[in-house]
Amino acid sequence: QLQLVQSGGGLVQFGGSLTLSCAASGFSVTTYPMSWYRQTPGKERELVAFISGSGDRTNFPGSMKGRLTISRDGAKNTVYLQMASLKPEDTAVYYCYTPTFGCWGQGTQVTVSS
């Protein structure tokens, strides 16, 4: 069964760091591309990070560029999103996503206090 289960997130102070995890089942995260999105109320989901299936290409569109790292652990079949220098405007629900299979994680709230 194909599934993405997220963990991490929570409340962090301005300038702080946080790492989100996305554990996959039913496929290998080191074979297929993976993405992270975020969404705030009333807005569409916004792509914030992408990693190719081979892992040799990453992309960080949007305002979080330079503050994000996306990585994978094949042994744990997990994708990570490391976020640094967080700002209140980064407050959102963050989702992992596999574009190949069209499956979303359940989402995790990240709240950055000023």
Question: What do these coordinates show?
Answer:
The protein is mostly beta strands and 114 residues long. It has no helices and eleven strands. The chain has strands at 3-8, 10-13, 18-25, 34-39, 46-51, 58-59, 68-73, 78-83, 92-98, 103-104, 108-113. The strands form two sheets. Strands 2, 4, 5, 6, 9, 10 and 11 form a seven-stranded mixed beta sheet that branches. Strands 1-3-8-7 form a four-stranded antiparallel beta sheet, with no helix packed on it. A hairpin with a 4-residue loop joins strand 9 and strand 10. The N and C termini lie far apart (41 Å).
Oligomer: single chain
| Beta-strand content bin | over 45%
Backbone CA Rg: 13 Å
Secondary-structure-based class equals mainly beta
Per DSSP, the total helix count is 0
Element string (H = helix, E = strand): EEEEEEEEEEE
How many strand units? 11
Distance, first to last CA: 41 Å
Could you give a short description of this structure?
The protein is 0% helix and 52% strand. It is mainly β and 114 residues long.
Keywords:
globular, 114 residues, four-stranded antiparallel sheet, mainly beta, seven-stranded mixed sheet, 0% helix
SSE inventory with pairings:
Blueprint: E1 3-8, E2 10-13, E3 18-25, E4 34-39, E5 46-51, E6 58-59, E7 68-73, E8 78-83, E9 92-98, E10 103-104, E11 108-113
